[in-house]
Amino acid sequence: MKRVAILISGGGSNMVALVRAMTGDFPARPVLVLSNVPGAGGLARAEALGVPTATVDHRGRTREEFEADLIATLDAATPDIIALAGFMRILTRAFIRRYQGRMLNIHPSLLPKYPGLHTHARALAAGDAQGGCTVHEVTADLDMGPILGQMPVPILPGDTEDTLAARVLVQEHILYPATLRAFAQR
Ligand code: GRF
Q1: Which candidate in 88, 145, 169, 177 could, as Cys together with 21 as Cys, close a disulfide (CB 3.0–4.6 Å)?
Q2: Cα of 11 to ligand 1 centre, how many Å?
Q3: Which atom of ligand 1 is nearest to the CA of 107?
């Protein structure tokens, strides 16, 4: 049974989907939900689901200080897998090297299209027929690690960034648990 730590920065809807999926014959269980933002909405949702939580505040600290604290807090939970879920901090190469091969992320585009931010706005501006989401392994090359799963989502006439984001998010909540299940069984 693999131990999964989930890193969040905000509402944590992907974290909730992952935690809710990790029951019964699912080959993994959540052991920690960690936020870099004190009071992030996802922390209360994790506690309501009975998952231990922690906060490692990045504000007022160097990247190295923040990550040293992050590593100490993460390793205290002895995770086998780290799942980034709406985690909005860029991680250094040293941090990534420490967990590479067992750290996943969900990104709201069909990578390799649109790494980085504002993915839905960019797909709309390009006139794409579809958007989507991708679960990938985290490597030093931002949003460009090996792809583990993808889900295309149609772009409809009149779509805005918000309507497309909402449609993609529904699929993220299906894709991430399915991809984590397969990854945990490898
Ligand atoms: C989602 O679009 C996800 O793809 C991105 O962060 C957004 C919010 O995720 N990584 P959540 O609701 O905090 O899980």
Answers
A1: 177
A2: 8
A3: 4
